[in-house]
Amino acid sequence: DADVTQTPRNRITKTGKRIMLECSQTKGHDRMYWYRQDPGLGLRLIYYSFDVKDINKGEISDGYSVSRQAQAKFSLSLESAIPNQTALYFCATSRNTIYFGEGSWLTVV
Amino acid sequence: TQLLEQSPQFLSIQEGENLTVYCNSSSVFSSLQWYRQEPGEGPVLLVTVVTGGEVKKLKRLTFQFGDARKDSSLHITAAQPGDTGLYLCAGAGGSGTYKYIFGTGTRLKVLA
After folding, report:
1. Measured between beta carbons, which residues in chain B are less than 8 angstroms from residue A101?
2. How far is residue B26's CA from residue B49's CA, in Å, rounded to a whole number?
3. What residues of B are in contact with residue A98 (Cβ under 8 Å)?
4. Of A31, A41, A100, the CB nearest to B98
5. Is the pLDDT of residue A48 over 90?
6. pLDDT value of residue A41
7. Average pLDDT, chain A
8. Fewest 10 Å CB contacts: which of A104, B6, B33, B53?
9. Are the beta carbons of B26 and B3 closer than 8 angstroms?
10. A74 backbone dihedrals φ, ψ, rounded to 5°
């Protein structure tokens, strides 16, 4: 089983809909991250959390929100999805090294 | 805002050639990591460098951290088709922070 699990792996949603991407980890790490990757490009940090009570905005937080429900769970929400949020989203955890989930493809039509 | 610029953005070479990928910033990082990413998968860690001037080797891959901890390079000797992929550098902020910022990526294609 993967140490960092993302659901759903693929989702197509309509403009204006609310969508949540969920992430859970079994590595026992306090630090969790959400990144966005556009085709052929590097990763951009959306939000990060260093413990359950700590939430921080990353480079591109506008249009996104997060919830750290537990040490092992960190969810990303798009309150009103728009087409330019179509991307591959990665959850990650870290202690001294980052471990990534397998990614969630989100298409907003 | 911390930025990491990678160059070149794209690289297509023949099997057996050598290449170097650069990762540059105006910011100081407490550590820097290199990842390789295959299509449809998450990035996989190759190496972490933490000391200015540090050099690490991983088979045909040589990684160097700049003396000032603002830049890094990845050199591949005798590239093989299996080296094809997206190479990403990522820096962790100074003062012990763990906010990882990723570079813009270098897409490498090695032709047989």
Report:
1. 42
2. 17
3. 33, 43, 45, 90, 100
4. A31
5. yes
6. 72
7. 93
8. B53
9. yes
10. -145, 115
